[in-house]
Amino acid sequence: MKNKIFTISVFVITAVVIGFYPFMQKSADATVNTALNKNPKIQLAILLDTSSSMNGLIDQARNQLWQVVNEFSKAERNGVKPSLQVAVYEYGNSRLSANNGYIRQVSSLTGELDQVSEALFSLTTNGGSEYCGYVIKTAVTELPWSKSEGDIKAIFIAGNEPFTQGPVSYKNAIALAKQKGITVNTIHAGNLQQGANSGWKDGALLAGGEYMAINHNHKIAHINAPQDKNIAMLNEQLNKTYIPYGVKGREKAQRQQAQDEKSKSISSALLSKRAAAKASAMYDNSSWDLVDALEAGKVKLDNIQEKELPEPLRPMSKSERKDFLDKKVQQRRKLKKEIARLSAERSEYVSKKKMEAAAPSVATVNDAVTSAIQKQGEAKNYKFSK
Question: pLDDT digits over 174-196, tens only?
Fold first, then answer.
């Protein structure tokens, strides 16, 4: 009798489970999809050869950072804008320690893009040994890569010496990257065929990435536009909406200003590109700016200690602080909207000027990075509007 009851119970439980399985599966799939769609990320590690012949490569990276950011600001996955994190490594510089393979992490993966800009401007060149496999393995193992399959995780390594050099096999380093879902893209600074003959193409093929060759000595021409003056004025007003808080708030606000000056010293056009990036969703300073932090829900104003607030806010009452910050939020939204409008007009003007000049197309760092990410992003359901 007990066996009969047991058999019936098992039958009933099995039937219930089978009956509910489709609903359970749908629920599980929905959970996975929600996880993939929530806060999508684009993570990039830029590995730059800083040996003596690479000054042009570094200049391109500095001059095109904000253009790359502006391209990625057009991305979305299922209607959600991704965040952008960038890391910078240098390798092949004899000033660096031989014990570490002549490699240095200049900046870890960060969404604070001013830190990335600062890192690029800090680079100097010097002769050395370029170990591609070593620096790829270092970036794969050191950086806090996302574990989500839906996020874009990509390494871009650029240089001009044989890809096969060094004590770490590039094949082993790439295999390690693939285990973590990281795509390795190779950029040969020089002739396309020469790069293919020296292992750069093979490295990309093994990694499922893109192999590209660029003219690293090509000087980036920034085209000035009628909108530049007004964009610069709006950028100054935008900076006044940033309210630094915490231990490093003031220091990071000063870094923001310094990177404005770096761009401006090169060209008013480059400052306009930077301002457009600052007006995009990619430019996030919630770790030190109260406006970004409050909008992102990362802090509560009542929980911040008075000593962590900037001087003007300390004597204010709680309601006064809230009113003050609410006004800054509204000011920033309005300024960003106007910068975006002028930037769109500027892009049209620049495009027409390029067409009129009919200058031959030259592949650069920006072309290599954006084309590869768009291709790899589309495979993960990312869309890039024009």
Answer: 999 999 999 999 999 999 999 99
> Considering only CA atoms, which of 378, 332, 373, 292 is closest in space to residue 84?
373
Spatial CA neighbour of 60 closest among 173, 208, 215? 215
174 & 50 share domain: yes
Q: What is the CA radius of gyration of the chain?
A: 25
Are 76 and 193 part of one and the same domain?
Answer: yes
Question: Does one domain contain both 348 and 379?
Answer: no
Q: Is 152 left (phi over 0), alpha (psi -120 to 50) or beta?
A: beta
Q: Which domain holds residue 240?
A: 228-357
Nearest Cα to Cα of residue 82 among 151, 11, 182 = 151
| 263 touches 255 (CB < 8 A) | no
User: What's the structural domain count of the chain?
Assistant: 2
Is 6 inside a domain boundary? Answer: no
267 and 317 in a single domain? The answer is: yes
Looking at the fold, whether 201 and 345 belong to one and the same domain comes out as no
Based on the domain organization, do 192 and 283 belong to the same domain? no
Question: For residues 43 and 145, is the Cβ–Cβ distance under 8 A?
Answer: yes
N-term to C-term CA, the chain: 72
| Structure tokens that stand for 83 in this block | 């965040």
Please, what is the Cα angle at 299 between 293 and 304, to 5 degrees? 115
Residues 44 and 158 in one domain: yes
Cβ count near 385 (within 10 Å): 7
CA distance 152 to 156: 13
In angstroms, the CA 57 to CA 214 distance is 9
- Answer whether residue 221 shows pLDDT above 90: no
pLDDT digits (tens, 9 = 90+) for 97-111: 999 999 999 999 999
Q: What is the mean pLDDT of residues 338-354?
A: 95
Kindly report whether the global pTM for this prediction surpasses the value 0.90.
Answer: no
